[in-house]
Amino acid sequence: MDPLVVYGSRPAWGTPDFSPFVIKLETWLRFAGIPYQRRNGNPMQAPKGKIPYIEIDGGKMGDSQLILEELTRRHNILLDQGMSTVEAATARAVRRMLEEGMYFATLRMRWLEDETWDEQYKAFKVMFPAPIAPIVMPLLRRRIRGNAVAQGIGRHTREEAYGMAIADLAAVEEILGDKPYLFGTAPRSVDATVYAFLVAIQNYPVNTSVVAAANAPSLRAYTARIKEKYWPATEMAAGE
Ligand SMILES: N[C@@H](CCC(=O)N[C@@H](CS)C(=O)NCC(=O)O)C(=O)O
Question: What angle do CA 146, 148, 113 make, to 5 degrees?
Fold first, then answer.
């Protein structure tokens, strides 16, 4: 059987991908022991207009969570077996907090602040042919600004928005405590999301207050532990 094909964007800042959702899906596949091949994708060719997406049954499937739930059924993956109902509910709340809240704070930090724009421009322009990057990048920024206002994060002051992200990181730190993984000694599916969002922020090369919070010692130890076991060959930039 051909290995699963995962479409992402590009490696970024020493992490496997610009998109935390791609890092999540790849990390989850590694937790689950499912071999895969990674290719550069394009949101315009994605079934839901977003990365990641995969090839499956001769077609394409989008959304990291729907993909991993489908693969869990097909391959009888037992990663989340034996969790208590409270653990499963906490895992869901953490995942949604990061994917539906922290994600937008990360987008804002990367795309909408004066202090990070040069870095963002320099890194992300590789996604486009050189002649059109100066045209597309500001358009993308404008679209992300509009989305940030629609979502809500763009209506707050920078301090308010970052304060919420920092409080979310503190919540993750509290739940993790001194355990190796969020719920004990073995990774659960939610650890893939937590790992992805943490490395995406920890390795961002502009040291905002959110980046500093994500680099709290216990959170760094957590990502280092997962990286060592599941991403041994991946370069990680800042602070490694
Ligand atoms: N719920 C989706 C979110 C994926 C997502 O937001 N992907 C972003 C990159 S981080 C994307 O492809 N954006 C392209 C666009 O909006 O045009 C998942 O879990 O896969």
Answer: 100
